[in-house]
Amino acid sequence: MTKILMTSVRDDEQAAINEFAKEHHVEIITTPKLIDDAVELTKDVDGLVIQQRSKLPDDIYTQLKANGIKQIATRTAGFDMVDIDKAHESGLVVTNVPAYSPRSVAEHALMQIFRLLRKSYRFDSQVAQNDYRWFSDEQALEIHTATIGIIGVGRIGGVLAKLLHALGATVIGYDVKPREEMKETVEYVSKEELLRRSDVVSLHVDLNPTSKGLLTAQDFAIMKASAGLVNASRGPVVNTADLVAALKNKEITAAALDTFEGENEVVMTDRTNKGLDDAPLVKELHTMDNVILTPHIAFFTNLAVKNMVDFSLEDTLAVLDGKKSPHEIQ
Question: Can you tell me whether residue 189 is helix, strand or coil?
């Protein structure tokens, strides 16, 4: 029977894993550990599925090869934690799950867009201090009167655009590869025009050399002083120090961040007692009453979790069977 090791497994994934194992007659060994600390377990398995944000150690690829592993399937859309060149040098096929549920992240972004437009972060802060007043500068924008800019109109950004369009918002988009089928929903514009016109900017790009630091001080200076920013893509897409400065200087009004620089140190950790002194940028964001932080959970829905498990395991079986996976990373 084929044996597959899955690392970084959470309790909420177990039902989908058990169902897949039963349906496909495979044995799936699970561990909450990162592959960094579980590489010894690969000696006794055929396939490997991982999930983590931290970069894999440089020497792990040769260890996996020595243990007979032929592939690495990451059950995430992002794959920057894997050194693709080193993996290929060790003969490892790498796959990801590029579209586990575009709607999950798009719906989260939509929720955050509403929260920024309705200034809910202000009321959350006030009510927490038993202040039930409201002020003139807290007047909201109705969604059908707002212009929402989407940077990266791909799978997720495209779904968000359709949701916004259905609600009557003006949707503008910037993408290096505009899609013809989206042009009735999105008005494609330059990045500069998008930043200048948008009431909220929502980021939905992959992390790659061209998208790292995509938004910096120069970009925030272009935006409306009343504008908000949503980042449900990857943290390094935004220069966090520049964002903090822009928020403090009132160049933009607010930000809702599901991903942010420094998140690897804090996400999935309990900081109740420890605090955030070792993550100063995150600490600064945390203390700001015009920032909404969530711990990289935009993807975290029932359908997305099942698809991430199923698709990554299907890719693993395909590679082990000598077949080509449509999700192979070149």
Answer: coil
